[in-house]
Specification:
Helices cover 44% and strands 15% of the residues. It has 311 residues and is α/β, with parallel strands linked by helices. Helix 1 packs across helix 7 (149-165), helix 4 (78-90) runs parallel beside helix 5 (104-112) and helix 8 crosses helix 10. The protein is globular, with a radius of gyration of 18 Å.
């Protein structure tokens, strides 16, 4: 049974290989909020995103026999980078499946960590399904970006750090793709502080899990291009994140591409940071909902900085 204990175990397991990222005050950006606002700076994590947490927890959980055979992952970006980096650290062979729409910049970075690239299909879900099938055939461990309890537990270690950094939090804004990040944070936070509101944030153009939650089951839903490349793509059938997210998410927010771009621009102009579109999704959702959070303490998870050059 997955619960907060798995996340605490992950926290101990990965503490020596990941950065305890800072919690940055940001109330000045939204004076109308009249409360406390913080950014959880996962853009400062090794590889530039929170994904290293889940990948490291999974890889450090492997048996010696599993590690020797190597691992297979599927990702058009941050998860692939994280798996490649975590595997390289332990000398484990890694292969990453990507779709034809992968950014050449991100594919090159994955290869620079020593992983091999396999291009399959036209969208991330096609690559994911092909990667899982290949892993089963080769008897190698498949590391899902979200549909894996060890990966979810690793992402949930962010909530452990938040408790140490700011014990009283009223709301946490989190960008959602496959749901691994919000499932991990939400599972721990709901055990620790049931009153904390977990806010799921989606681009209007790519919201498969949002629509699946509404439907009560995993469904296909048409997607449009989005600046939030890291959250784009469908859900693997039977993903464990759906049920966790049903329990963990209190509020859902959709944002437009213009709102995402404005959020990314805001932190660049006021802080000098480059963040990726997925981080802009969570910040845009807070900006949209700031009046509803007036006087409360809120955290926005700045999930990564790996924007493609076109962004």
């Amino acid at each position: 049974m997955f619960d907060h204990a798995n996340i605490l175990q992950a926290y101990q397991r990965i503490s020596s290989v990941v950065v305890k990222t800072p919690l940055e005050p940001a109330s000045d950006l939204f004076p109308q909020h009249r409360g406390q606002l913080f950014f959880k700076m996962e853009n400062l994590q090794h590889t530039g995103s929170f994904k290293l947490r889940g990948a490291s927890n999974k890889i450090l959980s492997l048996t010696s026999e599993q590690a020797a055979r190597g691992v297979i992952a599927a990702s058009n970006g941050n998860h692939g980078l994280a798996v490649a980096a975590a595997a390289a650290r332990l000398g484990i062979p890694a292969e990453v499946y990507v779709s034809s729409h992968v950014s050449p910049f991100k594919a090159q970075r994955i290869e620079e960590y020593g992983a091999s690239i396999r291009r399959v299909g036209t969208n991330p879900l096609e690559a994911e399904l092909a990667a899982r099938a290949a892993a089963e055939q080769a008897n190698r461990v498949f590391i899902s970006p979200y549909n894996d309890w060890d990966v979810i537990a690793g992402q949930g270690t962010i909530a452990v750090e938040l408790q140490e950094q700011q014990s009283a939090i009223d709301a946490i804004f989190i960008a959602v793709g496959g749901g691994g990040l919000i499932a991990g944070i939400g599972a721990y936070q709901k055990w620790l502080s049931p009153k904390t509101e977990i806010v799921g944030c989606w681009p209007q153009n790519s919201r498969v899990l949002y629509e699946s939650l509404k439907a009560g089951r995993i469904i296909d839903f048409p997607e449009q291009p989005t600046l939030s490349e890291s959250t784009a793509g469908g859900l693997e059938p039977g993903s464990v994140t759906l049920d966790v997210c049903k329990q963990a998410i209190d509020r859902c927010v959709l944002v437009t591409e213009d709102e995402i771009a404005a959020a990314v621009r805001l932190v660049r102009e006021t802080r000098g940071w480059t963040v990726e579109g997925a981080a802009g999704v969570a910040l845009a959702a807070f900006a949209q909902q700031a009046n509803l959070c007036r006087g409360r303490t809120a955290v926005v998870v700045i999930c990564g900085e790996n924007a493609s050059p076109k962004q």
